[in-house]
Amino acid sequence: MNIAQSPLIRKLGNFVVLSDGDLKVLEGLHRRRRTFAAGRDLVHEGQVSAAAYILAEGWVCSYKLLRDGSRQIVDFQIPGDFLGLRSVLFRTADHNIEPVTEVEASEVQESDLLNAFNTTPRLATAVLWAASRDEAMVVEHLVSIGRRDALERTAHFLLELSARLILVGRGTRAGFACPLTQYHLADALGLSPVHVNRVLRELRECELLTFQKGQVIIHNFEALVDLAEFDHAYLDQDGPLLR
Question: What is the pTM of this model?
Answer without folding.
Answer: 0.92
